[in-house]
Amino acid sequence: MSTELKQRVHERLLRAPELVELAQADGQRAVRARLAELLRDEDPLLPVVHFERLLSELTDEVAGLGPLEPLLAAPDVTEVMVNGPGHAYVERAGRLERIDLDLDAAGIARLVERVVAPLGLRLDRSSPMVDARLPDGSRLHAILPPLAIDGPCVTIRRFGARAVPLEAFGLDDAAQAFLRWCVEVGWNLVVAGATSAGKTTLLNALSGAIPLGERVVTIEETAELRLAQPHVVRLEARPPNAEGAGAVPVRALVRAALRMRPDRVVVGEVRGGEAFDMLQALNTGHDGSLSTVHANSAADALTRLETLVLLADTGLPLVAVRSQLAAALDGVVFVARRAGGNRRVEEVAELVVTPEGPAVRALFSWRDGRLAPTATPTRAPRRPDAPSPDSEWFACTR
Fold first, then answer.
1. Are 349 and 261 part of one and the same domain?
2. Which residue in 77, 167, 339, 393 has a CA-CA distance of 20 to 30 Å to 49?
3. CB atoms within 10 A of CB 143
């Protein structure tokens, strides 16, 4: 009975295209009011409980993402994964849970199209992959057959509205104080880790130590950062449109940011040739800049960055790349996700120069159930008026 009633309302909607314009102009509240009129008109005797349930479902289908809307509204859901028709999972507190989701292949494709169409993007057999950002800042990735064998797949990475503090990453007072000192005195830091390890969340937490009076320019492929500073310029890369034109890559935005008088440059993630432009930015006086990179350890982060710089096709020899890296970076913070979904900082390291090239030297390492200091830093603050590190942080290493 409910399905038939919803079908009748949908048929009336097809004869009332102005509702789509209403959704774009006035949002869900106006759509919900109009749908309530149609629903009452179709069944005036519908009980209140059933009426409210059907009204919510219809509103989600018309002005939202259908059955995905309740999941995206749940504060404890951090990721939604649709693995084709009838197969869906969510991540709660770092754990995956299977859920029932009444969506067929055509319904999944329609939901994605609703997100990407206003952005000038498309998802079809000629363009079977798409990345987009939802209005709340969540990141959507979708892929269609034949690339996705079992049907359309959608992954939505959500970002909480509330900032996650540094202590949530297993840091005690000494480690937190040292990382804040690194940001304040202008160390250039890279946050390294695997996919979904918490790199972006940790970068957000570290950015809280940036002085409020500084101008920060952020560059991201898909906007995820939420800096609390008042003077932030946010840049987001643009993929090609439906005609395959108009793309603006991260690399172009890094170069553009240098013309915007930044005190600090924050590159959300380097995964290609933009690593070269990032190193150029860090070597031209933008002390205290931050970025993230996929890597398996702090040491592997350097190798990964070397590889990404070589992908820029600049013709630089490896020895020159390593020289640029040693001059540009000061430290690497490695974060990992452990059993039970806990995300914690496993290592804080500084860059040192060896005869073979740049290497990392651990300053904090995870041992005895905590991130403990293991050595005192040798790299100096980049800003001349910066305070020296507090010797008490490293007293136990002597």
1. yes
2. 77
3. 16
pLDDT greater than 90 at residue 330:
yes
Same domain assignment for residues 52 and 75 = no
Which residue from 167, 166, 185 is spatially nearest to 389, judged by alpha carbons? 185
Same domain for 23 and 80? no
Same domain, yes or no, for 44 and 105? no
210 shares its domain with 271: yes
User: What is the mean pLDDT of the segment spanning 112-140?
Assistant: 82
Look up tokens 């995870």; give the residue: 366
Clarify whether residues 255 and 348 are in a common domain: yes
Range of the domain at 8: 2-63
* Structure confidence at residue 106 (pLDDT): 83
**Taking residues 1-7, what's their average pLDDT?**
62
User: Across the beta sheet with 216-220, what order do the strands follow?
Assistant: 232-236, 216-220, 264-267, 290-294, 189-193, 331-337, 343-354, 357-367, 370-373
Helix (H) or strand (E) holding 290: strand 290-294
pLDDT in tens, 208-261: 999 998 999 999 888 888 888 899 999 988 887 767 778 898 889 988 998 999
